[in-house]
């Protein structure tokens, strides 16, 4: 649907002229010469922006703007003035105007101003909608996110949780693999039992066996008493082996035997100890490639990989970024005892979060939100509170599809594939895809419609990315 613009000017000729210009910019236009009627229309119709003249006889544009802001603060108002004075611009801004334009209006400037205003409103609405969907952070193990990728993760957790199957969680560093492991544990019959976690990469190889299997008294220096390992301590619950791909080959063989026999032998002991523990593992490595390179045992890989849960990187989770950001802002404000900070997310702040590619994933996002709360000078965070790397990021990481193939493509086909790839990368978020491609939203929509007419089964948006993301 076209974005809707309301134009208010008590000069009929000027109103019609401005309406025709805005209509040619591909907006749905409603015009009125009555400020009173404009107030009624703004209150009853979903306009994306309002364009009003400043010097009207029955009601000034400044007063109209002020009254609209009182009832519809979500709709940006752009004031058009022929006075060209600084005082009039300041008065309009104080009344809540989003921007102002001088007469005669430059069509290009008008187009850019309307585009920014409309995107501003849409982003505010999306932030508001997503904020309302953030679960109560006090609910342990809550899986935050509504993207298609995260719904797939939740579906797998729901299906495999009640079973005893071994689960392998795969994802980049910082994506929340331990959170998924805890959700698998909580969803099963062992949810009331212990959840014991160990990072295999953080424990020296010489100590890992003792940590997992335990040791007998006198097994080594300082072993003054026997100690149960994590397998036994996790009995009745779940043992989470994080970064299992970092485990040395020698230790892999011992782990495999323990999983097969369901017993462990503590270091320095001749006695086997049984355990009743569910095993959940995680890694950021491609274990199939590690098996092919003989750095990971194939038999152990099939033992731990009964069900694989792939955790998507944050850059592929679309508007989940804003949901998570709101959640982390709330947590940081509570932890910092800054109750005055409201969970308001200015559109520029949200836009920067959506544009950034988050190489550190969810962990990096949480770090940035903690920083924003710590540096906030007002009752809400602002774009200036984000790290420089986020504010200065340029989205230039989409590779041309043609670089991945030796076939010769027409320019139309190349563009179609390029747009489709951009939409997939951002989870179907058309606003962000347009930003990545350097297009405005309406241009992107027109091209998608063209491809739907020429190739309806493979066009962007047909059986492709989810269509419920921000900006669709």
Describe this structure in words.
The protein has 472 residues and is an alpha/beta fold. 45% of the residues lie in helices and 12% in strands. It contains 19 helices and 14 strands. It has helices at residues 12-24, 35-44, 61-71, 86-94, 107-132, 148-160, 177-187, 205-213, 230-233, 249-261, 287-292, 298-304, 320-335, 347-355, 361-375, 388-391, 411-425, 430-437, 441-454; strands at 4-8, 28-32, 49-53, 77-81, 99-102, 167-170, 195-199, 214-215, 227-228, 238-242, 263-264, 273-274, 278-283, 307-310. Strands 2-1-3-4-5 form a 5-stranded parallel sheet, with helices on both faces. It has a 5-stranded parallel sheet with strand order 7-10-13-6-14. A two-stranded antiparallel ribbon has the order 8-9. Strand 3, helix 3 (61-71) and strand 4 form a beta-alpha-beta unit. Helix 6 packs parallel to helix 7 (177-187). The model is unreliable at 135-141, 396-406 and 457-472 (pLDDT under 50).
- Report on the biggest sheet: 5 strands, parallel
Described by its quaternary structure, the protein is single chain
Helix vs. strand class: alpha/beta
Secondary structure: number of strands: 14
* Rounded Rg: 29 Å
Give the strand line-up of the largest sheet: 2-1-3-4-5
How many helical stretches?
19
| Beta-strand residue fraction | 5-15%
Report the uncertain regions. 135-141, 396-406, 457-472
């Amino acid at each position: 649907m076209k974005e809707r613009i309301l134009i208010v000017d008590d000069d009929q000729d000027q109103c019609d002229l401005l309406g025709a210009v805005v209509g040619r910019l591909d907006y749905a236009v409603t015009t009125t010469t009555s400020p009173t009627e404009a107030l009624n229309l703004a209150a009853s119709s979903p306009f994306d922006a309002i364009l009003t003249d400043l010097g009207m006889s029955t009601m000034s544009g400044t007063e109209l703007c002020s009254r609209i802001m009182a009832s519809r603060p979500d709709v940006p108002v752009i004031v058009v003035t022929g006075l060209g004075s600084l005082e009039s611009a300041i008065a309009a801004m104080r009344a809540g105007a989003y921007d102002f334009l001088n007469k005669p209006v430059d069509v290009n400037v008008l187009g850019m101003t309307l585009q920014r205003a409309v995107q501003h409103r849409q982003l505010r609405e999306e932030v508001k909608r997503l904020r309302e969907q953030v679960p109560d952070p006090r609910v342990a193990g809550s899986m935050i996110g509504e993207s298609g990728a995260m719904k797939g993760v939740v579906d797998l957790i729901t299906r495999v949780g009640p079973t005893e199957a071994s689960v392998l969680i795969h994802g980049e560093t910082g994506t929340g693999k331990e959170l998924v492991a805890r959700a698998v544990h909580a969803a099963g019959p062992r949810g009331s039992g212990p959840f014991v976690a160990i990072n295999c990469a953080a424990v020296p190889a010489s100590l890992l066996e003792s940590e997992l299997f335990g040791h007998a008294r006198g097994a080594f220096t300082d072993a003054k008493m026997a100690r149960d390992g994590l397998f036994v301590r996790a009995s009745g619950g779940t043992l989470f082996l994080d970064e299992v791909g970092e485990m040395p080959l020698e230790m892999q063989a011992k782990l495999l035997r323990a999983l097969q026999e369901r017993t462990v032998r503590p270091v320095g002991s001749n006695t086997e100890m049984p355990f009743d523990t569910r095993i959940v593992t995680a890694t950021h490595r491609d274990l199939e490639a590690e098996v092919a390179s003989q750095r990971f045992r194939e038999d152990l890989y099939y033992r731990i990989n009964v069900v694989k849960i792939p955790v998507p990187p944050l850059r592929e989770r679309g508007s989940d970024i804003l949901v998570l950001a709101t959640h982390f802002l709330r947590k940081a404000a509570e932890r910092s005892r800054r109750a005055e900070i409201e969970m308001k997310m200015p559109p520029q702040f949200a836009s920067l979060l959506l544009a950034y590619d988050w190489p550190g994933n969810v962990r990096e996002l949480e770090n940035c939100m903690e920083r924003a709360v710590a540096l906030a000078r007002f009752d809400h965070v602002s774009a200036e509170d984000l790290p420089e790397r986020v504010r200065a990021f340029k989205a230039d990481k989409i590779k041309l599809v043609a670089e991945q193939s030796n076939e010769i493509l027409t320019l139309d086909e190349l563009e179609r594939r390029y747009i489709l790839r951009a939409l997939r990368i951002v989870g179907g978020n058309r606003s962000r895809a347009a930003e990545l491609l350097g297009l405005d939203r309406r241009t992107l929509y027109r091209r998608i419609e063209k491809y739907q007419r020429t190739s309806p089964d493979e066009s962007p948006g047909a059986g492709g990315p989810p269509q419920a993301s921000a900006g669709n």
